[in-house]
Amino acid sequence: MLVHPWDAPLDDREWKAWLADGRDFGQLIAPGMDRDLPIVVPTHFLYDGDRTIRLHLARPNPVWPHLEEKPRALLTVIDDYVYAPSEWTRDDGQAIERAVPTSYYATAQLACDVRIVDDPEEKAGILTEQLAHFEPPDSQRLPVDLEDPDRRLLPGIRGLELTVTAVRAKFKYAGNKKLPVKERISSRLKERGSDADLRARAHLHRRHF
């Protein structure tokens, strides 16, 4: 991933706060050893706000041989993405037909050491944490029980604990543009007004105004 200096996180606190703020779905990418292509698994996860991520996957998932060969994976998360038309991004005095449209987005790519969890009690703990996060407040599904009704379900899954060892993050929000262009982009995002537009605009203001 190309990260220009103006798109780089201000510090680790920026990407950690962004990831912890409701981002709980991404793609787990496992290369394995000497394989043509990695396995890519879309999945929910729990992030502790620092360096630990927990999740579970079905036992038949094809990712397990890759992780057993090489206990390393990349978790990538993308959000707050919008398309910016050329009229928005043109420099002052530049003809629209020569302007370049672009995309604005935030992303974090987390390189992780992987620990596979097969202990029933620890798997039940991961499931309980995930259900507490994702289920409605009045859910009757908590906690996960080592006995019935969950005893026969637990063998069908395996847990994962990921320890983050390195991060490449990017907040691409017109950091290379002059202030009048940023102001135009801000105005257009507000006018278009989707939820994603407003989140992108908030990033633009937070980082550059």
Would you give an account of this structure?
The chain is an alpha+beta fold and 209 residues long. The protein has a single domain (5-175), classed as Electron Transport, Fmn-binding Protein, Chain A (Pnp Oxidase, Chain A). Helices cover 30% and strands 32% of the residues. The protein contains six helices and seven strands, in the order αββββαβαβαβαα. It has helices at 12-20, 63-69, 86-89, 120-134, 179-192, 195-208; strands spanning 25-30, 39-44, 46-47, 52-58, 72-84, 102-117, 157-172. The chain has a seven-stranded antiparallel beta sheet. A hairpin with a 4-residue loop joins β3 (46-47) and β4 (52-58). α5 packs antiparallel against α6. The chain is elongated, with a radius of gyration of 21 Å. The protein starts with 11 loop residues before the first helix and ends with a helix. 26% of the residues are buried. The model has no long low-confidence stretch (mean pLDDT 95).
CATH architecture classification name = Roll
Question: Structural class of the secondary structure composition?
Answer: alpha+beta
Strand content: 25-35%
Taken together, the total number of domains comes to 1
- Backbone shape: elongated
What is the subunit organization of this protein? single chain
Summarize the structure.
The chain has helices at 12-20, 63-69, 86-89, 120-134, 179-192, 195-208; strands at residues 25-30, 39-44, 46-47, 52-58, 72-84, 102-117, 157-172. By secondary structure, the chain is of the alpha+beta class. The protein has a single domain (5-175), classed as Electron Transport, Fmn-binding Protein, Chain A (Pnp Oxidase, Chain A).
